[in-house]
Each structure stands twice: as C-alpha cells, then as structure tokens.
Amino acid sequence: MIPLVDWIVLSTILLAIGIYGLVAKGNALRLFFAIEIIVNAANLNLVAFSHYLATPNAIGQTFALFSIAIAAAEAAVGLAIVVVAFRLNKNVDVFRLRKLKH
Amino acid sequence: MNEEIIFAALAALTIVAAIVSLEARQVVYGAISLAFSFLGVAGLFILLNATFVALFQIIVYIGAIAVLILFTVMLVTKDVEAESKREPIRPFAILIAVALAVVVSLVASFSNFTNTYAVSSNLTVANIGALLTGEYSFALEILALILGASIVGALTLAKLDKE
C-alpha cells in the first residue's frame, strides 16, 4: 500500500523541476516544457487526492480531464506564438524578444 | 510489495525524463524525453485506478501535445542552440527548486497524510460521465468554447504575416 504522502512528494518534485526550468532556461520551447511538467504535477495531485478520499468520488478525475483539455488549448496557442516569434526574430530566446519594450 | 515497485519505477521514469527534457543538449531530444515523462504520468494514473484519465493523458498529451511540440521544435530550432543569458542564475534556480521540494516534502511528512491509505472503490467511466453531463455540463460547454477559440487564435497567429 502506498501512503498519500508519496504522491504529494512526487508531484512536489515535478513542480520543483518545472519551476527550475522556468527560472533557469531562456529558450521559449524549454519554458513550454517546464509549464507542461507543472501542469502534469497538478493533475497528478488532483487524481491522487480524489483516490485517497474516505468516500472516493470521480470529481478529482473530472477536474483532471478539464485541466488536460485546457493544457491542449494552451499548447496550440503557445506553440503558434513560438512559431511567430521565430519568424519575426529568427530565434526563440525570450531575452531577445524585447520588441514591446522599445 | 508489487505496487511499491511499480510506483518507484514509474516515479523514477517521470522525474528523470522531466529533468532530461530540460537539460538535453538538443531541444529535439528534450521533446522526446518529455513524451516519456507524460507516459510515466499516465502509468501513475493507472496505478491510481484512474484508467480513463490515463487514456486521456496518452491520447491528448502524447498523441497531440508531444507531436505538436516535436513539429514546432523541427520548424523552429537551429542546429546549435545559442548560449542563454540566464546561465548565471542557474545555481540560484537549482537552490530554489531543491528548497521548495525539501520544505514541502517535510511539511507533508509531518502531516497525517503519511498514514492515509486508499479505500477500495469501484469508480468507472460511468461516474465521470454522470458528472460531465450533470453537475459540470456547463463547464464542459465553456471548455468546448475555449478549445474552439484557441484553435481560431492559433490559426490567426499562424497566418499573421501572409497578408
């Protein structure tokens, strides 16, 4: 039997990896990977908590499904933005995408 | 016990693949590694008795998002990735991540989640369907609108400079 704390620790580690990626990486695609890892950690937490309820119900799983669908929408728009940024700037380093600043 | 071994293997796969996806020298390998990380999470969902969510995870994440990411990487990436200006922050970022993981794990290990175990349940896809068509049917409609809007947005962005 696996106690609930193992799942919490696992999703915390995934969250920490994602935050590390967001802080340390400059490539827009890597930032995208980091966001997806964080979303996965959140989904894992939702499903784990719903499985460990005293009277289990499917609400946590339903929320995870919603979250996955939102992530798909976010992926479509985010990757389109990356492609447009590459077309305009010839690279995807977020530190060189400063057109709005000037 | 078998369950613990499977959990440890899947957790290791997920974590290692997630780290490799951020640290691989070429972004293409990172994208493939990210797909393996998604697969590990799908396996963990099956271990949590959430078979339908695992199915959804494989179809949407590996079938759609990972492939979309791979296509984008091949369209966007040059042969050599330019050295990022963020390199000096890296030790700081590792420190933040490790501190977050350690602190939250410590807090969780002092809670009574340590002796919370799953009770047996027979949740099926029928329960999810009842929720989606009953209590959360309005949210489902909104979700359909969001997906449609995001597709229109992505198409608009992709055709931006053709005019």
Comma- or semicolon-separated keywords:
heterodimer; A: 102 residues; mainly alpha; Helix Hairpins; elongated; B: 163 residues; Four Helix Bundle (Hemerythrin (Met), subunit A); 2 domains; 6 helices; 74% helix; globular
Our count of domains of chain A comes out at 1
Measure the end-to-end span of chain A.
58 Å
CATH superfamily of the largest domain in chain B: NADH-ubiquinone/plastoquinone oxidoreductase chain 6, subunit NuoJ
Tell me about the largest β-sheet of chain A. none
Radius of gyration of chain A: 17 Å
What percentage of residues of chain B falls in helices of 4 or more residues? over 70%
Q: Roughly how many Å is the radius of gyration of chain B?
A: 20 Å
Multimerization state:
heterodimer
CATH architecture of the largest domain in chain B: Up-down Bundle
Order of helices and strands of chain A: HHH
Question: What is the typical, i.e. mean, pLDDT of chain B?
Answer: 87
Strand content of chain A: under 5%
User: Kindly state the mean pLDDT of chain A as a whole number?
Assistant: 89
Q: Report the count of strand segments of chain B.
A: 0
Q: How does the overall form of chain A come out from the CA principal axes?
A: elongated
CATH fold group of chain A? Helix Hairpins
